[in-house]
Design goal:
Blueprint lengths: L2 H4 L8 E5 L10 H10 L4 E4 L4 H4 L12 H9 L3 E5 L7 H6 L6 E3 L2 E2 L13 H18 L5 E5 L12 H15 L2 H8 L23 H27 L7 E3 L1 E2 L8 H6 L5 E2 L2 E2 L18 E2 L2 H15 L3 E3 L20 H11 L2 E6 L25 H16 L7 E2 L3 E5 L1 H9 L14 H15 L4 E5 H6 L2 H7 L2 E4 L7 H12 L3 E4 L22 H4 L1 E2 L3 E3 L4 E5 L14 E7 L2 E2 L3 E6 L8 E8 L2 E6 L1 E3 L1 H11 L15 E7 L4 E8 L5 E4 L6 E3 L5 E2 L4 E4 L3 E8 L3
Parallel strand pairs: 1-2, 1-13, 2-3, 3-6, 6-7, 8-9, 9-12, 10-11, 12-13, 15-16, 15-17, 17-18, 18-26
Antiparallel strand pairs: 4-5, 14-28, 19-23, 20-22, 21-22, 21-24, 22-27, 24-25, 25-26, 28-29, 29-34, 30-33, 31-32, 31-34
Helix pairs in contact: 9-14, 11-15, 12-13, 15-20
Length: 710
């Protein structure tokens, strides 16, 4: 068995459990905790990643035996263990002995001790201590039968290091990448403002940098430091691990120094931490304006996190942390409404999760996260949350066999670019309400289109740029006949040529704002916009504008496929002044001046089609776009869906389609099953005839399986 095969442990099992910190308990209750976990259908716990000072209380003095009773007790109850390496939280003795290990948030400005992840993990000195504790812990427990895998470090990439050694390494990295200063001067345009250098030692530190090309290189280098550090740890662990044990790390995707696709290449499986706001944040009928930060606050935002995790390796993933209760500070107390825990977990499973693990088992009685609520409350008496978790565990056991080899369905593909996200953080096209740079411009643009597809009833697959470059284009077109590309600002010629090939092969390419405007160095291209794509699009623009208020859009009579526009559809925040040159004008602006521009054009290109959307759509327009991109999504075989009912699906290795039917509202809702074949309820085992009306209780989900045509 290879490590890549080992990650499922049992192909009929969806791993289920929580992070468990018996060392944080104030009373002895190991057996009681493990018994409660077993009763809640736990199959996995995560241990050990946060307590270096417990493992090594003094320099080179180890205390390794405290974990053995936990592993023995878990194993005796059939609970697997993921063992963490504790390198993200330094012990005080190491901080005192080597204060120079502190990461610098700016040149000459070290962070302060007292939190976590304050260390410069690119430091060779730090790695000597890190390697010692990794080898001690993993060497002690790698052969324990409970251990199925390892999590190295924890949510890496929190800081951009400005330490002297980091900058020196950056200069060496630039030398290897560009060769000489003349090449660097040319590629970065350092003639500007007299920035030309003749010697490498003339390169300035990043703190006062104003050049986007420098910044993009700096961000790329920082992400490589993270990948290098995690890969270094993984290699050490693999010296002890057997082929049935996997190595991963838990990714917090918004971290500034992470490129998730590159990071997961040095691991055996993707693992991530999707947090989300509960209560009205999971109400599909809520009027709360969604946002996406370290925690999402919408149904589509939760789906987006899962699709990003699947995209890292284009395969199923582990959820190493997600909400058990209220999350955030002591002032953010919004526990889940009854039913929401199972809903959210099963939504993640529907999009590819093969493990659901909560942070964490018991609510802490001390420390920073005292009010980050676990499965057990402060009383440690099992209550509603524990009971709902136990019911969820039983459901996951029931559906596990049907999820073997599961691949989520997708109607529409989205092209994602980490480099463009970085570039648009430095040079954001969008502004905040107070006219300051909106550093979240890339996710704002991307998510406006993604949200529309999800809320239209379609399903999405996110594909990273390098994955798109490596694919067989004809196969990709057959699998994803629609490809949406919003905000691809830092785009290489190869990527744009690939987009052209996609349309020539019959794909429908949808270009969103800022796409193709810059090259791989984030230099504005000297070409008619959208560069390299204007001819096949049959439309171009040479001016663009921010807009402070939304502008209504209108349909235009065209010969291309008609576009159904809903009341309230609007353009927001940005306009690219599209002028057609052979393309059909699909949408225009209702505006005294911008009305001279097209808001959306579409044209045949080769065997395919190119559509250009020159604005950031509001929720109504985004949903209309989603319906136009995919008028008959896979879920369209369902009918009479109530308001707030969402259907997602995937294919298992038996060739069956597994359906997840969610009611994301506090009201009873209905859904009518497909007409071409009966379904089987994976929880109750009942057979459900075709065209049956399902009654969906508030905050509930039904999981059904049938043939792939149904």
């Amino acid at each position: 068995m290879t490590r890549n095969d080992a990650r499922n442990v049992d192909k009929d099992l969806i791993l289920f459990g929580a992070a468990y910190y018996n060392e944080y308990q104030t009373i002895e209750r190991l057996d009681l905790d493990l018994d409660l976990m077993q009763q809640a259908n736990f199959s996995v716990i995560r241990v050990g990643e946060s307590v270096w000072s417990t493992w090594e209380p003094e320099d080179n003095t180890f205390n390794l035996e405290w974990l053995e009773p936990i592993l023995d007790g878990a194993h005796a109850r059939g609970i697997h263990v993921i063992l963490g390496t504790p390198t993200y939280a330094l012990p005080p003795w190491l901080q005192t002995k080597h204060p120079e290990l502190l990461a610098h948030s700016a040149t000459g400005t070290p962070l302060s001790w007292g939190g976590r992840q304050e260390v410069d993990y690119s430091s060779p000195l730090f790695r000597t201590y890190a390697e010692r504790i990794i080898r001690a812990v993993v060497g002690r427990y790698s052969s324990h039968p409970a251990v199925i895998g390892y999590q190295v470090d924890n949510e890496p990439g929190l800081e951009l290091f400005h330490n002297p050694g980091t900058f020196a390494g950056f200069v060496q990295w630039l030398k290897a990448r560009y060769g000489d200063t003349d090449t660097l001067n040319h590629e970065w345009g350092l003639v500007y403002w007299s920035h030309r250098i003749s010697e490498w030692n003339q390169l300035w530190v990043p703190d006062g940098n104003t050049l986007p090309q420098y910044d993009l290189a700096w961000r790329t280098y920082q992400a490589e430091l993270t990948t290098n550090f995690i890969g270094w740890q993984a290699d050490i662990v693999r010296e002890y691990a057997d082929d049935a044990q996997f190595v991963t790390t838990c990714i917090a995707y918004p971290r500034p120094a992470v490129n998730d696709e590159e990071l997961t290449k040095v691991l055996d499986i993707t693992a991530g931490n999707p947090y989300y706001e509960m209560q009205d944040g999971l109400d599909a009928t809520s009027i709360i304006e969604p946002r996406q930060s370290w925690a999402s606050n919408s149904v589509w935002g939760l789906t987006n996190q899962a699709d990003r995790m699947f995209a890292s390796r284009q395969e199923r993933f582990l959820v190493t942390e997600t909400n058990a209760g209220a999350i955030g500070g002591s002032e953010q107390n919004y526990p889940p409404y009854p039913g929401q825990l199972a809903q959210a977990a099963l939504a993640l499973v529907a999009r590819g999760a093969s493990m659901i693990e909560y942070w964490h088992w018991h609510t802490l009685h001390f420390g920073t996260e005292t009010y980050w609520v676990g499965i057990l409350p402060h009383s440690q008496k099992p209550g509603r949350v524990y009971n709902e978790i136990a019911e969820l565990g039983a459901k996951l056991r029931a559906i596990g066999p049907a999820m073997s080899g599961y691949t989520p369905d997708a109607d529409v593909a989205f092209l994602y670019s980490t480099e463009s996200k970085w570039a648009l953080e430095f040079f954001p096209p969008l502004a905040t309400e107070d006219h300051k740079p909106d550093r979240g411009s890339y996710p704002t643009i991307f998510n406006a289109f993604y949200r529309g597809v999800i809320e239209s009833g379609a399903q999405a697959r996110i594909v990273n740029v390098s994955q798109f470059l490596d694919c067989d284009i004809d196969t990709f077109v057959k699998r994803f006949p629609v490809l949406v590309v919003p905000g691809l600002y830092a785009a290489s010629d190869d990527a744009l040529e690939r987009l052209l090939a996609y349309t020539e092969s019959g794909g429908h390419l949808v270009i969103g704002p800022r796409t193709a405007y810059g090259d791989e160095e984030a230099r504005a291209r000297m070409a008619v916009a959208p560069p390299m794509l204007a001819d096949v699009a049959g439309a171009s623009y040479d001016e663009f504008s921010n807009i402070d208020a939304s502008i209504a859009v209108k349909t235009v009579d065209v010969t291309a496929p008609s576009f159904l526009l809903s009341p309230g559809a609007e353009a927001t925040r940005w306009i690219e002044g599209l002028t057609p040159n052979g393309a059909d004008v699909m949408l225009g602006y209702v505006h005294h001046s911008f009305g001279r521009f097209a808001a959306m054009t579409s044209a045949q290109s080769g065997a395919g089609r190119v559509t250009v959307v020159g604005t950031v759509p509001n929720a109504v327009l985004g949903k209309d776009l989603g319906r136009w991109f995919s008028p008959t999504p896979i879920s369209s075989v369902w009918s009479d869906l109530g308001v707030g009912v969402n259907v997602s699906s995937g294919i298992n290795d038996a060739g069956e389609r597994v359906w997840f039917v969610h009611n994301w509202t506090p009201e009873v809702a209905n859904a009518t099953t497909p007409a071409d074949g009966p379904l089987r309820d994976l929880i109750g085992g009942d057979s459900i005839a075709e065209s049956s009306v399902l009654i969906l209780e508030p905050w509930s989900v039904r999981i059904l399986v049938g043939n792939a045509g149904a």
